[in-house]
Amino acid sequence: MTTISTTSGLITLINVFTVELANQRRLIELLTEATEVSVRRAPGFVSASLHRSTDGTKVTMYAQWRSIEHYQAMRQDAGPLATRVDGQWLILDNRTLTLVRDTDVTRAIPEFLLDHEGVKRFNLASQNRRVSS
User: In the Cβ-directed half-sphere of 69, how many Cα atoms lie within 13 Å?
Assistant: First the structure.
């Protein structure tokens, strides 16, 4: 449980996401999955809580970390999450804290490759593309 206090020694980050009415539930699912699968295992992570607005257009996340350096390290290492909703892909990019349609993503260089062997980091070295585990 998140407890905000000036004497705890922790940092508390409050992120407010604005989404289309139809996407609030999916965003909560994506943020919950990201927290459970990877963020909670990151060094320095303490807790997170999600809150939804009654009008369906906002999601607020309170996250606590031991230090700003721990939080920044997680942001540099975390990849995007994606989900398919009503025939389109929605992508939550942890670096920019945005939820976008895949068709709105332009000029992107992939960081991860997902195939039958699992997830691998995608490297773009000079003109050669190679994949590493």
Answer: 0
pTM: 0.60
Topology at the third CATH level for domain 11-132: Alpha-Beta Plaits (3.30.70)
Per-domain boundaries in the chain: 11-132
**Cα(125)–Cα(105) distance, rounded to whole angstroms?**
22
Instruction: Please give the chain's pLDDT, 133 residues, in tens.
Output: 567 777 788 999 898 988 888 889 988 988 888 788 778 888 999 999 999 999 999 999 999 999 999 988 887 765 566 777 677 777 776 566 666 777 777 666 666 666 677 777 766 553 344 444 4
